[in-house]
Amino acid sequence: MTTVTVWNEYRHERESDVVAEIYPDGIHAVIAEALEAAGFETQTATLDEPDHGLTEDVLDSTDVLTWWGHAAHDEVREEIVDRVHDRVLDGMGLIVLHSGHYSKIFKRLMGSACSLKWREAAETERLWVVEPGHPIADGIEEYIELDETEMYGERFDVPAPDTLVFNSWFEGGEVFRSGCCYRRGNGRVFYFRPGHETYPIYHNEAIQQVLVNAVDWAGPGEGPTPTFGNSQPHEEIDLSDDRTVH
Ligand code: ZN
C-alpha cells in the first residue's frame, strides 16, 4: 500500500481567521482526509515540528510526499531540503502544490527560479486536461472549473515538463501550465497549481481526485536499482586493436 506524508507549512491557518474558517485543522488535514478515504496510508507533517516533521523515520515510511508552503519557505532548513532531495532521487514521489513553486525543494529539483505572474481577484479558472490518457487525469472531465481562484500566469519559469497534464485558463486572460510531471533520478515529481489558502480549493472533489491520482502515479516504481561507476564488460571485448592496453 502506498504511504503518503502530507506536509504543510501550517501558518496561515493559525494566523488568519479567513483561512482558519476554510481549513480549521489546516490544509494538511483536508488533503490527508481525502487521501485516506481513497485508501492510502496517510500521515501529516508540519514546519514547526522537530525536523519540520520530516525525520529519517518518517521519510522511511513515505512513498509519496505532498508539499504545501507559502510564507515561510526560508524557514525550511537546508539539511531537511537535502534529506528530501536525496529521497526523491532515490525514488520517493513528490507532489508540489500551488505556492510550493517557490519552495526550496522544488527550486532545487527544477534548477530554475520557478517564478510566475499572480493576482488575487477571485477569478474563474478552467484547468483543461491536455493529456487525457495520463493516469493523473483518470475520472476527470474535459476540464475542471473553479469559480474563485488566485491567478497564476505564464511565464512559469520551470524546465519544460516531461508531460503536461493540465493547462489553465483564467478569467483575466492569462494561461498557466497547471499540472507538470517530471522525473528526477528515480523519483517522480508532479506540480499541481490550485490551492490558494483563502479559497476552499482542497475541498473540491475533482481537485481531490487529481491528488489521489497523482499520489498513485508518483509512488516509487518497481524498476531495477541502477549501478554506477567503473563497469566490467558483459561480453568479451577484442582488445588486440586497443593501443592504450599494455
Ligand atoms: Zn496563493
Offer a few descriptive terms.
single chain; about 250 residues; alpha/beta; Rossmann fold; nine-stranded mixed beta sheet; 7 helices; 9 strands; globular; binds zinc ion
Describe the protein's architecture and organization.
The chain is 24% helix and 28% strand. With 246 residues, the chain is of the alpha/beta class. The chain has a domain at 3-114 and 178-218: Rossmann fold (3-Layer(aba) Sandwich), CATH 3.40.50.880. Strands 2-1-3-4-9-8-7-5-6 form a 9-stranded mixed β-sheet. The radius of gyration is 20 Å and the shape is globular. The chain starts with a strand and ends in a 28-residue tail after the last helix. The relative contact order is 0.16.
CATH domain fold name of the domain at 3-114 and 178-218: Rossmann fold
- Helix/strand order: EHHHEHEHEHEEEEEH
Estimated structural class: alpha/beta
In CATH's first tier, which class of the domain at 3-114 and 178-218 applies? Answer: Alpha Beta
End-to-end distance, in Å?
A: 55 Å
In round numbers, the mean pLDDT is 97
CATH architecture of the domain at 3-114 and 178-218: 3-Layer(aba) Sandwich
- Number of helices, where a helix is a run of at least 4 consecutive DSSP H or I residues: 7
Q: Enumerate the distinct ligands.
A: zinc ion
Q: What value does the Rg take, in angstroms? A: 20 Å
| Main beta sheet | 9 strands, mixed
Beta-strand residue percentage = 25-35%
E-strand count: 9
| Strands in their spatial order, largest beta sheet | 2-1-3-4-9-8-7-5-6
Helical content band: 10-25%
CATH superfamily of the domain at 3-114 and 178-218: Class I glutamine amidotransferase (GATase) domain
Q: Spans of 5+ residues with little confidence (pLDDT < 50)?
A: none
Question: Judging from the principal axes of the Cα atoms, what is the shape?
Answer: globular
